[in-house]
């Protein structure tokens, strides 16, 4: 699509997506908890960290390659799990899966993905991790865990920072629901965004595809508050592959997770969508790194908007990071071409920043 050529930054993608998407969909993707001060606070923390330029170093040959769980990845950033991605554009889940194949990076597949988890890992050629919530009494949760294992997933990501779904006023004002409901307010919204509406109508209403199985009807408002450390132990016993716990913001929790046999943690505030008063994940990252030691895998998401943000996060203690919203905005703005353009922008931003601070490889970030 021609719009892809106009994406030169994440803000370009967001601006274009805002024109195209219905208000309800845009605010579902873009919104955060409360008055959104948590999102602003984390963004301010990232902006406040300077990068120190160095000169007269040969940085002509640079590589963004790294490893994650022993596997090669062509970028130090992957795709965060995001629910109902096909709202941003028909087929978005599979666009992300194809991107994961191209760069050998993890595609986080959400519990509430719009495409069956089996189809996504097939298209991603194994470059996919399955993200799980513990809901209700856990019966349906462990059915999904078994299903992911049978589909060939090797890494399970337990999202632990949603004991109750956070209040996001922008969603509430628009009456956003999952499963998708259309009332008079939504009808007017869609009518004012005909390109999105007609395309989505032709492709079929986005569904939560992983719940089309007997005995498990998804309820987004169902409490997830029963999960505890015994739940984690059950999950660890049930899952033969790598287990990541996402949503960690406390050093003591990080240390306990390490002691309980979790293979990696993901420092995250859920994109500031859960607790408005949560601390900035970026500021907690160095403290968590210090607590778990230099060799334990620490991943990061929340608030990242550029390749420079990636570099700052790696310098602050992360081993690998994940992008979320901006990839959906790029899809909304320009389809698969927009997604690929956004990925190239992030790559260029990071490579140029590496040159500016005088490093050629990512293993040099620990020496800055």
UniProtKB/TrEMBL annotation:
<dbReference type="InterPro" id="IPR012133">
    <property type="entry name" value="Alpha-hydoxy_acid_DH_FMN"/>
</dbReference>
<feature type="active site" description="Proton acceptor">
    <location>
        <position position="270"/>
    </location>
</feature>
<feature type="binding site">
    <location>
        <begin position="324"/>
        <end position="325"/>
    </location>
    <ligand>
        <name>FMN</name>
    </ligand>
</feature>
<dbReference type="GO" id="GO:0009060">
    <property type="term" value="P:aerobic respiration"/>
</dbReference>
<feature type="binding site">
    <location>
        <position position="273"/>
    </location>
    <ligand>
        <name>glyoxylate</name>
    </ligand>
</feature>
<feature type="binding site">
    <location>
        <position position="268"/>
    </location>
    <ligand>
        <name>FMN</name>
    </ligand>
</feature>
<keyword id="KW-0560">Oxidoreductase</keyword>
<feature type="binding site">
    <location>
        <position position="246"/>
    </location>
    <ligand>
        <name>FMN</name>
    </ligand>
</feature>
<feature type="binding site">
    <location>
        <begin position="81"/>
        <end position="83"/>
    </location>
    <ligand>
        <name>FMN</name>
    </ligand>
</feature>
<dbReference type="InterPro" id="IPR037396">
    <property type="entry name" value="FMN_HAD"/>
</dbReference>
<keyword id="KW-0288">FMN</keyword>
<feature type="binding site">
    <location>
        <position position="270"/>
    </location>
    <ligand>
        <name>glyoxylate</name>
    </ligand>
</feature>
<dbReference type="GO" id="GO:0005886">
    <property type="term" value="C:plasma membrane"/>
</dbReference>
<feature type="domain" description="FMN hydroxy acid dehydrogenase">
    <location>
        <begin position="2"/>
        <end position="368"/>
    </location>
</feature>
<feature type="binding site">
    <location>
        <position position="168"/>
    </location>
    <ligand>
        <name>glyoxylate</name>
    </ligand>
</feature>
<dbReference type="InterPro" id="IPR013785">
    <property type="entry name" value="Aldolase_TIM"/>
</dbReference>
<dbReference type="InterPro" id="IPR000262">
    <property type="entry name" value="FMN-dep_DH"/>
</dbReference>
<feature type="binding site">
    <location>
        <position position="131"/>
    </location>
    <ligand>
        <name>FMN</name>
    </ligand>
</feature>
<feature type="binding site">
    <location>
        <position position="159"/>
    </location>
    <ligand>
        <name>FMN</name>
    </ligand>
</feature>
<feature type="binding site">
    <location>
        <begin position="301"/>
        <end position="305"/>
    </location>
    <ligand>
        <name>FMN</name>
    </ligand>
</feature>
<feature type="binding site">
    <location>
        <position position="110"/>
    </location>
    <ligand>
        <name>FMN</name>
    </ligand>
</feature>
<dbReference type="GO" id="GO:0004459">
    <property type="term" value="F:L-lactate dehydrogenase (NAD+) activity"/>
</dbReference>
<dbReference type="GO" id="GO:0010181">
    <property type="term" value="F:FMN binding"/>
</dbReference>
<protein>
    <submittedName>
        <fullName>L-lactate dehydrogenase (Cytochrome)</fullName>
    </submittedName>
</protein>
<comment type="similarity">
    <text>Belongs to the FMN-dependent alpha-hydroxy acid dehydrogenase family.</text>
</comment>
<dbReference type="Pfam" id="PF01070">
    <property type="entry name" value="FMN_dh"/>
</dbReference>
<feature type="binding site">
    <location>
        <position position="133"/>
    </location>
    <ligand>
        <name>glyoxylate</name>
    </ligand>
</feature>
<keyword id="KW-0285">Flavoprotein</keyword>
<feature type="binding site">
    <location>
        <position position="28"/>
    </location>
    <ligand>
        <name>glyoxylate</name>
    </ligand>
</feature>
